[in-house]
Predict the 3D structure of the following.
Amino acid sequence: MTTTQMTGHPAGGWDIEADVVVLGFGAAGCAAAIEAHDAGASVIVLEKMEEGLEGGNTRVSGGIWFDNRDPERAAVYLRSLCGDNPLPEPVVTVWAEETYRNTAWLEGLGAKIGSHGAYPPEYPELEGSDAFGGYLGVEGRMGDGLLYDVLTRAVRARGIEVRLATPARELMQDTATGAVHGVLATGPDSSPLRIRARRGVVLATGGFEADQQMVRDYLRLPDSVVWGTPAATGDGHRMAMKAGADLWHMDNMMTVTGMRAPGFRSGFYTPFFLGKNFLYIGKDGTRLADEQPQVGHGQAVLHGNYELFPVRPMHVIFDENARLAGPVSPGRDMLPVGWNLLVEGYEWSADNSAEIEKGWIHRADTLEDLAGILGLDPHALLATVQRWNAACAAGVDDQFGRDPQTLAPLDRAPYYAFSWGPMVAWSNGGPRRDERARVLDPFGAVIPGLLAAGNVSSTYSWAKDGGMHIADALAFGRVAGRTAAAGE
């Protein structure tokens, strides 16, 4: 991507003009568009994907946000979650105040809000965790695109123009000031569109987790698969960098266990929260880690530290007991989230038999045969499982300290396995921004007319709790919309 440098109007004039141009139609983009419109600005939204595939990760996420009980305590919690990667205090303050206002704002859009349950904080030991009041959601439910439906209805009810299948390609800047005053996009018919933004452009284009090269460069994952939208290819990051943006916490992310399947651009989430009879195995046939540590949305407590987890390629092996405990990848009745479930419409079989038949999951009558399929040393794998089964009998995992309540032997043939990349749920880093969502250059100066919100520039520099990504997207989406409408 390049940045078109110009003063005044481009040759041939503008095809479309608006006060605010929003790039992306997920939670952050919708919030920005609504807020800018309600502040009196004319708004146009450009969305990369075609109808039925639009909406980014918001469309397929849990769509819930955390209940911020107290902004002052929430600010303390965010500082604690940042750990050794502190954020500017003005950003912390605005995050705490605006996430507190999320629920009232959504209710103002006509959403019926309810509690999704009294979920405890994922990091109860951190100062400020008492501000976490559980999850809130539309109708008190998780997933099924409920939040996305509320937001998109509110956008369309305001008469805001939304152009699908219209990806932004370039930011147009003034050569003298560097101010962003337009976007070059490509329409559904592949024709170029020159769109003037009289007051500002809001980047709400999502993360870069679907771009393999960026994942290798910034997240250091050599062979990952994406959990959510395949459209999260770092478009906004490239445009922002070309426009002179600095970057922040580009190495932060959330990974989950999952698998790649032929014919699917996104992966399948495999949480294994039903069967306990499973292990994470490395290339040498040994266990890699505690398979069920205290884990938050991206970090786990390992050896007394908060570390990104999981981050290494592995083989997941399990036995017949685990297979019969329930689906490896949850269905709509259990967890109605994920691209392959909600967009592609794939329902995983209840006993995993269909996926075994497809060859997505390997099956073998013995551990030695399973090792051969995976390319592992059979003696090493057998020794690993024997040690594990002995730990289960003793009730103590002397290798990694796995919770005794989760110890279950692998002792019922046949045996199963799949290999995993890992799967990136979302990236967190992007163009550095201030508390007013204005994008900054490497010297801390504002790039006039350029704003960012959502996963293209997530607030979180390190750990984050459940419901915090949606909360951040809504909060700074609104901030970006107000700032852009004011032309600041």
Notes: The first helix runs from residue 27 to 38.
